[in-house]
Write a structure and sequence with these properties.
- The complex is a heterodimer of chains A (130) and B (76).
- Chain A is an alpha/beta fold and 130 residues long.
- Chain A has helices spanning 14-29, 59-66, 73-84, 92-98, 115-122; strands spanning 4-9, 33-38, 87-90, 126-129.
- Helix content of chain A is 39%, strand content 15%.
- In chain A, strands 3-2-1-4 form a 4-stranded parallel beta sheet.
- In chain A, helix 1 (14-29) packs parallel to helix 3.
- Chain B has 76 residues and is of the alpha+beta class.
- In chain B, strand 1, helix 1 (16-27) and strand 2 form a beta-alpha-beta unit.
- Chain B is globular.
- The A-B interface holds A 22, 25-26, 29-31, 67-71, 76, 79, 83 and B 11-16, 18-19, 22-23, 26, 50, 53-54.
């Protein structure tokens, strides 16, 4: 049975973004209804032209950074959207703080979304925070 | 006419091989056979789980040397 999974990405560390992206892509490609809300330090990675790599929080993240063949989290989020119709939603508050508009975000991201809207969409689903 | 395709996902880590398979599965026609090659051990348990959940058919799964050969058929 398909489930509804809401993921909140807050942290900008490699491990957390990677784990969130893995869950989003696998769940979405398996038929689950997935929405990912990007706020705080997770959002800047999705601003067009952002090149800085996510820093590792610990040993696994450091090993992943060196290891070839780990799918990059941005690619996994994109696959979640393309293969499984996951919604990738930028937090409107974080956009205000960064002083950016929708056009300045990667094209796979959806419309700027407020908390009220996200929480009402999340009703009845599972909410995971990274 | 159903086709057979090999997807080489060796040397990529979870969930890379599974996502590769899913990408090709979307493009394949019903009846096509896909053989996924992977060096990631988790793939061997993850792929049958996904196939079962989504409702395609597992044909075979075997490890030859370091490489898993996982054959599946698209059924819908």
């Amino acid at each position: 049975m398909s489930q509804k999974i809401q993921i909140v990405c807050v942290s900008g560390t490699r491990e957390k973004l990677q784990m969130a992206a893995m869950i989003a892509s696998v769940a979405a490609a398996t038929g689950d209804e997935v929405a990912v809300f990007f706020s705080m330090n997770a959002l800047p990675y999705f601003v067009k032209g952002h090149t800085e790599d996510a820093s590792a929080e610990g040993e696994l993240g450091a090993l992943m950074a060196q290891q070839k063949g780990v799918p990059p989290f941005k690619q996994l989020f994109k696959q979640a959207a393309e293969l499984g119709e996951a919604k990738l939603l930028p937090c409107s508050m974080a956009m205000d703080i960064l002083k950016i508009t929708e056009n300045e975000l990667d094209s796979e991201l959806g419309p700027p979304t407020g908390l009220t809207r996200f929480l009402s969409d999340a009703e009845g689903g599972q909410l995971l925070t990274f | 006419m159903s086709e057979s395709k090999i997807i080489d996902a060796c040397n990529t880590f979870c969930p890379g091989p599974l996502m590769e398979l899913i990408t090709y599965m979307k493009q394949a026609n019903v009846g096509d056979t896909l053989e996924l090659l992977s060096t990631d051990n988790g793939t061997a348990s993850d792929v049958p789980e996904w196939i079962n959940k989504v409702g395609h058919e597992m044909i075979s799964s075997e490890k030859v040397g370091e490489v898993w050969h996982i054959k599946v058929r698209k059924t819908k």
